[in-house]
Amino acid sequence: MPRNTSAAGERQTEAARLLNEYRAILQNNDHLISGLEVMQKIPEPTISQRARMKELEEQLIPDGIQKEKVLGVRIRQIVAGLQGEGSLPEIRRRTVIELRYLSQLEWPQIAEALYPDEWDEAPLKHRKYLIRQAFRYHAAALEQLDELLRAGDQ
Prior knowledge:
- The chain is mainly alpha-helical.
- It has one domain (14-153).
- The chain has 6 helices and no strands.
- The chain has helices at 14-40, 47-80, 88-102, 107-114, 116-119, 124-153.
- The longest helix is centred in the middle third of the chain and has 34 residues, at 47-80.
């Protein structure tokens, strides 16, 4: 699969690629740590299980955390560029990116965070509308992040 193409085949922006890579690293680290915690509860682990726990503790988890730190610094620097003048749309664009990629929230949770006063009492149709609004802020934020990335490359 080409570097800037998603699973569905559409072209990803550089910002989307970086953010998705970071999200995948976070998820992988969570899974590795959870797996280690489960293995540590085994009363009498086998030799291969002990070897795997050692590998997780000494190599895989530290390597994943290092990748998370390095890419996380770059992501936070880029996202900081979304702050602009602090208008509501700019705040919401930044918030969507932070909630989706740094906090690992799903779209309904993001919409609820963006529109807390409307969400609780909203019928399903209106909630779907609020989720679409979150998608729109996401798309606008990715465009702005790509502009920032292009400007940084020059």
